[in-house]
Specification:
Number of domains: 1
Shape: globular
Distance between the termini: 51 Å
Structural class: alpha/beta
Oligomer: single chain
Radius of gyration: 18 Å
Number of strands: 8
CATH superfamily: Phosphoenolpyruvate-binding domains
Helix content: 40-55%
CATH class: Alpha Beta
CATH architecture: Alpha-Beta Barrel
Largest sheet: 8 strands, parallel, barrel
Length: 254
């Protein structure tokens, strides 16, 4: 059976992030096995993490080939080079980290699209163009833009993010956000809670899907009850470590 084309995968990802029960995970271990396992488990999408994971640009290609659904690539920084390289390798969404001003946001979003709309370099002899086979690939390219809300600026100016029509979704990084607000790991602190509420309200008012990273199932359920539209549950490495630890603890029980 033929794989979905990139325009279909882009629409599938947009629909998934918006429907309110979408679940994915971060993949930081380089290779193909984590993506195959994520597909077997039934995740709606995966995030190939080039910011904090062990991945290089070539691992985006491995992700796209190994995972049956949409792949989002989190770039290490929202430069034109980084965004272009993950898109050319086949990611249908890009997660843009550490946005700290409207100027940074506007420039980062320009890197997603071909001229005259944006500044992405044009080529068809790559995976995103089906190696030149898909003659409509360039015309139909509209990568999904997921902007991370993890800086003080993002917490204080969520309307600047959600009112930009090129933003498809917002994703909260709780750990980075807590450090940015000078309340590291204090997720019950009123300052952090108020920031989270402000981001949520802005996204809901603008009808922009909003997601968040959950470290475990209980936290994921809490976030879902708060109104988050999509959840990333941990990562491949944390899930593997958790499974190992759980097995050993059960075996050691007397």
């Amino acid at each position: 059976m033929a794989r979905l084309g990139f325009s279909d995968l882009q629409q599938l990802l947009r629909d998934s992030l918006a429907h309110g029960a979408s679940v994915g995970t971060f993949i930081g271990i380089a290779g193909t096995i984590s993506y195959e396992l994520a597909a077997l488990a039934g995740f709606d999408w995966v995030i190939c993490d080039l910011e904090h994971g062990e991945n290089e640009f070539s691992n985006v290609s491995a992700a796209v080939v190994s995972f049956s659904g949409p792949v989002i690539a989190r770039v290490s920084s929202a430069s034109a080079e980084n965004v272009s390289r993950v898109l050319d390798r086949g990611s249908v969404g890009v997660m843009l980290p550490r946005i700290s001003s409207k100027a940074e946001l506007d420039l980062a979003l320009l890197t997603l699209d071909y001229p005259p709309v944006g500044i992405r370099g044009v080529a068809s002899y790559n995976r995103s163009g089906s190696w030149g086979h898909d003659k409509q690939a360039l015309a139909q390219a509209q990568p999904v833009a997921v902007v991370q809300a993890e800086t003080r600026w993002a917490a204080e100016n969520p309307d600047e993010i959600v009112n930009n029509p090129r933003v498809d979704a917002v994703f909260v990084g709780p750990l980075d956000l807590s450090f940015s607000l000078d309340v590291p790991r204090d997720f019950e602190n009123p300052i952090f809670v108020a920031a989270l509420d402000g981001i949520l309200r802005a996204c809901k008012a603008a009808k922009v899907p909003v997601g968040i990273l959950a470290v475990d199932i209980e936290k994921a359920k809490t976030y879902r009850s708060m109104g988050f539209d999509f959840i990333a549950i941990g990562s491949d490495s944390t899930s593997l470590l958790g499974a190992f630890t759980n097995q050993l603890n059960q075996l050691k029980e007397k």
